[in-house]
């Protein structure tokens, strides 16, 4: 057999679109994921626990709050930020999700909706990962319908706001220092944003158990029982759900990139396995049907990554639309689901063993497929744009 090929799934060399310093940092992140994360992550996945000891290493990389300028944030391109999400997810989708919640949703809420004083107060420490953030939007009875169906409420009493309700599926919520809570004003019905600090009386969490996907992520149900938040902790530029949607629009592209990373991780483990596993006296990589599966996977990855790269360029140009982000999220997660299935198929029975990693990617893909807007909802957003008719009732 010929020499083993390099284990890269960047077949069209999209990394060449990055600046030299961004590409070097991306390689540092890859090395961290390969040497620090991969050897331990299956154990944490099995125990459904979060590897808190990895946070200092992530902090040293300086990757939190990538696309934001000032306030201790790097101010890098959206293209790099997307490729970073892909690289993290290539190693482990749970850690990519953790960073997406902290650096994307939580920091993004403050960056886009906070006052200057609030940005100065919280973002530098969050960029250093001295303070960890969470983002509380989804509720037990409202996911896709959260804009109309939010039941968490807020009411003002002098210089204090009183929050009541529940949030569900909130990553990082049980250990975060700052939790962004979106609540409906009892007086105006406007959706407002608040920063609830860890230890605030009336704030409690219960971690969700027995998940089959993203088991390392600590998703929780948050209960808010007369939680008193000072006016200075209300996000001053968040006046309606449209402001919440600005945050979601920004991060949806990151989820599309993360799905590409999940596909890449599964593909690269499958490729490695194919070059090492022997049957009938030869490596299975020499079999036509195995090569067919590998090429199908690589095609999905390359098409999805190219779509995401263009989306990030539009994001950097400040011309990206909701519909464009939704198409990428829907398409890339569909291709991810197919790709991780091919990777498991290539490994046969060994594909369901956690020690071969692909099983973790296949399971985690199910969560990425659904969060940040289901395929159906994102499809209807795009369908409305191309037909001029809304099918959302």
Could you explain the architecture of this structure?
The protein is of the alpha+beta class and 393 residues long. The chain is 51% helix and 16% strand. It folds into three domains: 14-127, Orthogonal Bundle (Butyryl-Coa Dehydrogenase, subunit A, domain 1), CATH 1.10.540; 133-239, Beta Barrel (Butyryl-CoA Dehydrogenase, subunit A, domain 2); 242-387, Butyryl-CoA Dehydrogenase, subunit A, domain 3, CATH 1.20.140.10. The strands form three sheets. Strands 3, 4, 5, 6, 7, 8 and 9 form a seven-stranded mixed beta sheet that branches. A two-stranded antiparallel ribbon has the order 1-2. A two-stranded antiparallel ribbon has the order 10-11. A hairpin with a 2-residue loop joins strand 1 and strand 2. Helix 3 runs antiparallel to helix 8 (288-316) and helix 4 packs antiparallel against helix 5. The protein starts with 19 loop residues before the first helix and ends in a 6-residue tail after the last helix. It comes from Blastococcus aurantiacus. Its cofactor is FAD. Residues 134-227 form the Acyl-CoA oxidase/dehydrogenase middle domain.
């Amino acid at each position: 057999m010929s020499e083993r090929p390099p284990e890269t799934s960047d077949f069209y060399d999209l990394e060449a679109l990055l600046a030299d310093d961004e590409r070097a940092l991306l390689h540092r992140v890859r090395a961290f994921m390969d040497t620090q994360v991969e050897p331990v992550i299956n154990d944490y996945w099995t125990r459904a626990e979060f590897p808190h000891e990895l946070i200092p290493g992530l902090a040293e990389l300086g990757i939190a709050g990538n696309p934001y300028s000032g306030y201790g944030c790097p101010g890098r391109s959206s293209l790099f930020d997307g490729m970073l999400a892909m690289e993290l997810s290539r190693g482990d989708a749970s850690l990519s999700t953790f960073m997406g919640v902290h650096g994307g949703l939580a920091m993004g809420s403050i960056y886009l909706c906070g006052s200057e004083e609030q940005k100065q107060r919280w973002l530098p420490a969050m960029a250093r990962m001295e303070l960890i953030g969470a983002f509380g939007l989804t509720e037990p009875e409202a996911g896709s319908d959260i804009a109309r169906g939010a039941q968490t409420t807020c009411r003002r009493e002098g210089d204090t706001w009183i929050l009541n309700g529940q949030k569900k599926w909130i990553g990082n919520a049980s250990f975060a220092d700052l939790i962004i809570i979106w609540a409906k004003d009892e007086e105006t019905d406007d959706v407002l944003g608040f920063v609830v600090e860890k230890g605030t009386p009336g704030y409690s969490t219960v971690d969700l158990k027995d998940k089959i996907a993203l088991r390392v992520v600590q998703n929780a149900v948050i209960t808010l029982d007369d939680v008193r938040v000072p006016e200075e902790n209300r996000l001053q530029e968040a006046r309606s759900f449209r402001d919440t949607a600005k945050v979601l629009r920004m991060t949806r592209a990151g989820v599309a990139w993360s799905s590409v990373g999940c596909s890449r991780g599964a593909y690269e483990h499958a490729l490695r396995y194919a070059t090492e596993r022997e049957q009938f006296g030869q490596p299975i990589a020499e079999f036509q049907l195995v090569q067919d599966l590998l090429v199908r996977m690589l095609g999905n990855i390359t098409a999805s990554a190219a779509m995401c790269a263009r989306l990030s360029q539009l994001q950097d140009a400040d011309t990206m639309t909701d519909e464009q982000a939704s198409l990428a999220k829907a398409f890339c997660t569909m291709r991810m689901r197919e790709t991780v299935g091919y990777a498991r198929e290539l490994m046969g029975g060994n594909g369901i063993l956690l020690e071969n990693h692909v099983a973790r990617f296949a399971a985690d893909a199910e969560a990425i497929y659904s969060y940040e807007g289901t395929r159906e909802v994102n499809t209807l957003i795009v369908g409305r744009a191309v037909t001029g008719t809304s099918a959302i009732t």
